[in-house]
Amino acid sequence: MQAVTFTGHGGREVIEYAPVPDPELGPSDVLVDIKAGALNHLDVWTRRGLPGLDLAMPHVPGSDAAGVVEQVGADVTRFEVGDRVAVSAGVSCGDCEFCRRGEPSMCVRYQVLGEHLPGVHAEFAAVPEDNLVPVPDGVDWVTAAAVPLVFQTAWRMLITRADLTAGESVLVLGASGGVGHAAVQIAAHAGATVYATASSERKREFALEIGADVTIDYENEDFAARIRELTDKRGVDVVVDHVGAATWQQSIESLAKGGRLVTCGATTGPNPETDINRIFWNQLSVIGSTMATPGEVDDVLELVWDGTFEPRIRAVLPMSETDRAHGLLEDREGFGKVVVVPDSEYDDE
Length: 349
What we know:
CATH architecture of the largest domain: Alpha-Beta Complex
Low-confidence stretches: none
Strand content: 25-35%
Structural class: alpha/beta
Helix content: 25-40%
Oligomer: single chain
CATH topology of the largest domain: Quinone Oxidoreductase, Chain A, domain 1
Number of helices: 11
CATH class of the largest domain: Alpha Beta
């Protein structure tokens, strides 16, 4: 079969679309005929190389995909051949103290398909039964592939970890990205006033279309100062920051007393300077969040399947052009998700 691969870490030039052995199916695995996959910034970081990440090469990347069940392992009970499924990429041990209390994303051996383990950007993928969710008839493959990772991440950040309630205010950084555009929709659905940052007029228009109340041009404005102005110096209740070092201090400055900063990533670097005095004096909370529980995945995907939330797609490309797809993410072109389709399934019309 054909798959997206890289044989070493580096720039986009290491990406290939090449023949690889067919996946081996374990007793608890499901063989999925992949119809579409979606990229996340995690794919860029995995390709570049992360500290402590020691991958077997060649590595097949990709954490998001959707397709049709082709075959099931002997112990599989939830799916049958022909079922429509999407991938939820978090893999937990099931045995540690955190798994036993229903928090698999805190698992001491937590791994992510496409990052620590072989991914799903291929014609076929063998996926553990527990890492698949049903996709209803009528949901197109591009949508099904685009939503699981970013929508589950944003849902857990806002609804579970930050405990967002109606009437509060939220600042979402990077509203044009995958997690950002999901967070805007979720915050608006929860009844919050949503402020969103984006770098261009077109991206800010998109943010308004999907639920933002106010947008801020972060490249030409100090967004913390703008938030203080917009809120009569109060600040917002919650900041969603997946950007990291470049925005951290302004994110803290944007919070109201008792506010919560929730983070799931650090695209611009993991070690920012921080104002500890402001944190304790204003009694702020800094909250980390990773992926989601199966129940949280079900809750948010139900709202995608019924049309409440809508992933925005910036491009659909054949898997043989995955290097170009990485470029769209790295160059911050467009709004929403980038999807790749096996060349055998791709129709440019």
